[in-house]
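Hi R.,

Here's the chain you asked about this morning:
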Amino acid sequence: MRSDAFSQHRVEFPNDDGYLALGDLVDGYAVHVGKFEETARPNDWGAGDPQATLYLRDRLERARRLVPPDVRDELLVELEALDRRLRDSTEDDVDGRVLRDAGELRPAAAWWWRRLPVARLARAELPRERSP
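And the predicted structure, written out as tokens:
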């Protein structure tokens, strides 16, 4: 269970408008990770939706560096669990399809940007694997 300090802690992101509540960022990431796990329902996601998940994870990584140590410890516990779920519902993107799809917005390529959705329209909409 999250502490009030964690749930209510707000993080300022340079070059962004205003502050974001840390709890809201974690909750948003959790919802997006849950979509990767939902293999039985009809697919209603496209390639942009997994990217949104990965950008959320980028923000959480930035937040991890900005928050006080007590909040950071709590954040790390939540991130470890969510990251494990993301890894379990993706596979290594050995061909770099996800990064190629990010194009000019290409991030620094943290591990989560090297994960490929296992199934769904999201995977089909990504650039194809390179031919041998």
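The chain has a mean pLDDT of 80.

Let me know if you need anything else.
M.
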